[in-house]
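[#protein-structures] MJ: dropping 6-phospho-beta-glucosidase here for a structure pass
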Amino acid sequence: MVLRKDFLWGGATAANQFEGGYLDGNKGLSNVDVIPAGKDRVSVMKGKMKMMECDNLHYYPSHEAVDFYHHYKEDIALLAEMGFKCFRLSIAWTRIFPNGDDATPNEEGLKFYEDVFDECLKYGIEPLVTITHFDVPMNLVRTIGSWRSRKMIDHYERLCKTIFSRYKDKVKYWLTFNEINMLLHLPFGSSGLVFEEGENEETVKYQAAHHQLVASAKATEIAHQINPEIKIGCMLAGASTYPYTCAPEDVWKAMTRDREHYFFVDIQSRGEYPNYVKKMFERMNISIKMEDGDEELLKKHTVDFVSFSYYGSRLTSADPKVNSQTAANLFPTLRNPHLKVSEWGWQIDPLGLRITLNALYDRYQKPLVIVENGLGAIDKPDKNGYIEDDDRIEYIREHIKAFKSAVEEDGVDLLGYTTWGCIDLVSSSTGEMSKRYGFIYVDKDDQGHGTLKRIKKKSFNWYKKVISSNGEELD
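AK: finished. structure tokens for 6-phospho-beta-glucosidase:
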């Protein structure tokens, strides 16, 4: 058998795309709650358009999402029926500390997640929990500017102490920040950063990144103190970048593009700022403010494993004219003529997953987990309510084959695989429901209408067979 016996098969979600109940149980308002669907979504996520509260002109899909908050028992039972070994979900920060700086945590929020974890454990499902999946209390955005302020480290530390202490015997695997490198691309959407006219945005972003990296190291330290059995991971929006041609300039461009993303994990996994980043800061005239003890903390408290999302590879050119012709996705990438694309223009590259696994394992020599992978597609039930999602089955099958080759032929140490959006949820990039990823269909449309009924797709029973065979039966 190729994969370890205790391989963590499962699926992944995020509170702001899945949970709903956005003010239920004394939950506070998050940055993700004020991000609308529609034409303004990306401008708000990039911090270019200020939206500090909800208005009556926009639809906010996170407010109900697919209402896991009120359906969690039904949903976890469905995951158990598929045979899940692992369920990745995130904690909504404002469910625990509604304002972020509250003197005491919100017991209703703590109890909700305790009930969720207990429900998972009842079925033998290991929770894999993201501490923050892009969410920041809006109160902290308004009062201190979110992660641009060093005070955020203390607020995050208090959150970590609270949840690690409460769930120390229920949750073994934690991720400190979801896709931490997205801070560079969607500063408000991922980290609550809003820019003022005329300020150096790159300096703000990298200073915020430093605060998150210090906070991640503190989280690792706290977790290991509370329970040495806890495993802390980092999380990267991963994908290898290919050069457009074999011209050395293109190869160099691809390497530097990858380094933009490796930067975060280099620090979280290796424990120090790499020289290429220090030189980049010199060229960009960026001065990062560090305090005494920061470098020692980063060096001493590195992560136990590295996790990443993978949806497809990227392509770049050193020629500005060529590089201006970018394809879909929030990461700019050229259209690769050798690859098929999804309905949303995302390039499908299973071999790229094997390449990325090898690149990360060669670089860090730590166990890896693929915590997001999947195909966003339009699913339409037939007259009997059945959804035949053969494209999704094919996509996941080929990616499983790729990571099995990385394990068997290349020796990569892979702990698990959690497909993205195992139950349909709101798309992070577009705010749509019609961009579906799940094995389970949720009756809801892009305008928020629907019964929220859960329906098993064809892929449900296929993935169940994959899990029961530990990846041996893929047909």
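MJ: nice. The CA atoms of residues 228 and 349 lie 38 Å apart.
AK: one more thing. Residues 201-226 form the longest helix (26 residues).
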